[in-house]
Design goal:
By secondary structure, this protein is α+β, with helices and mostly antiparallel strands. Helix content is 20%, strand content 42%. The protein has two helices and eight strands. A hairpin with a 4-residue loop joins β5 and β6. 19% of the residues are buried.
């Protein structure tokens, strides 16, 4: 095995561990899905807050527009929330066939300069996520000496 192959293999093995090391907090649920936010991933800049989310489904869910058809149980997303107008946009995500995030079945990524923002409907799970990421205090960055 070449050094490059070994590095790629080790990176793939480490990726699920990064998600496991996250500080996941449940922020809401609706029917068969629970939504969790990695509290340590929240980053704020101006009126925007960026965070990693997990959508955990209790039963397999169809991947939209998949050909051939596929199903997933877990979806990890990066959501950017506009705290001033209660809007959000999903920058990227990966869907997994298993509930632990080890078997990816689809992924997507959008150009952040042209993300379509949507207003989170009142009392929806997205509204709970926007509220959580916009109101959770984030630690101050370390002071450079």
């Amino acid at each position: 095995m070449s050094n490059r192959s070994l590095i790629v293999a080790l990176a793939c093995l480490a990726a699920p561990g990064l998600a496991l090391a996250a500080k996941w907090e449940k922020v809401g649920e609706s029917g068969p899905v629970q939504v969790w936010v990695d509290k340590d991933s929240i980053r704020k800049a101006g009126s925007e807050a960026r965070a990693n989310l997990e959508w955990r489904w209790s039963r397999p869910t169809d991947v939209p527009d998949a050909d051939p058809p596929r199903q997933y149980r877990l979806e990890r997303q990066v959501q950017i929330s506009n705290c001033a107008n209660r809007a959000y946009a999903v920058a990227e995500g990966t869907r997994y066939a298993d509930e632990r995030g080890l078997d990816p079945v689809s992924s997507y990524k959008y150009d952040e300069l042209s993300l379509p923002y949507s207003v989170a409907p009142a009392r929806s799970v997205r509204d709970l996520v926007v509220t959580y990421v916009c109101t959770t205090p984030v630690p101050a960055p370390p002071v450079k000496k």
